[in-house]
Specification:
Number of domains: 1
Radius of gyration: 18 Å
Order of helices and strands: HHHH
Number of strands: 0
């Protein structure tokens, strides 16, 4: 029974961290238009955000996590429009809806990686038990 409570605890902590960091990303970076001034560094930042989604899927290891990027679209609705000096920007929620497509894929990659690691670890254990 301890295994399930550890797994649930890890899932809950991962979800809380995911939504906390996502709210910081939406309201602290996207809503303020901070990526606009970074130029090429913005791609590095977006890559790190993508890697964070893969890590979330790896830690979480639950398929229900694929719904969380959709929830973030609704979380982004109150943000309104980001600050921009170049043109009239799209609402933050619309950008998050576009990001959500990629976020779901990245989370799924993390989950599959975790399942492969667990399967390989289980295969190694059964081979040594023989």
């Amino acid at each position: 029974m301890r295994y399930r409570s550890d797994r649930l605890e890890r899932f809950v902590l991962a979800v809380l961290a995911y939504f906390g960091l996502s709210a910081l990303w939406i309201y602290g970076v996207l809503d303020q238009g901070l990526l606009e001034d970074l130029g090429a560094v913005a791609w590095l930042v977006l890559g790190l955000v993508g890697l964070a989604h893969v890590a979330f899927g790896f830690v979480c290891k639950e398929w229900i996590a694929l719904l969380f990027p959709v929830v973030l679209v609704f979380l982004a609705v109150p943000a309104g429009y980001p600050e921009s000096q170049f043109s009239e920007p799209a609402p933050v929620w619309f950008g998050q809806a576009v990001y959500a497509v990629f976020e779901v894929i990245l989370i799924a990659v993390g989950i599959v990686l975790r399942l492969l690691v667990d399967h390989r670890r289980l295969g190694r254990r059964s081979a040594t038990a023989r």
